[in-house]
Amino acid sequence: MFEFFEREQLAYIIIGAVLLSGLAFAIPYSRRRKREKLRRRGIKKYGH
Predict the structure, then answer these.
(1) C-alpha–C-alpha distance, residues 3 and 32, integer Å
(2) Residue 48 maps to a domain
(3) What is the CA radius of gyration of the chain?
(4) Is residue 34 part of a domain?
(5) How many domains does the chain divide into?
(6) Confidence class of residue 27 from pLDDT cuts 50, 70 and 90?
(7) SS3 call for 47
(8) Where are the alpha helices (DSSP H) in the chain?
(9) By three-state DSSP, how is residue 24 classified?
(10) pLDDT value at position 44?
(11) CA-CA distance, 18 to 13, in Å (whole number)?
(12) Longest C-alpha distance within the chain, in Å?
């Protein structure tokens, strides 16, 4: 499989995979933080 890719293309693929996995983790984390902030302010139901 790796014979088809140049080193530079392989580097871009790896960087893209890392960024996608980072986004997959960051989006639910930021939503949870927003919900926590609103809950502390007294808004109990958020997103329902």
Answers:
(1) 43
(2) no
(3) 19
(4) yes
(5) 1
(6) confident
(7) coil
(8) 7-41
(9) helix
(10) 67
(11) 9
(12) 58
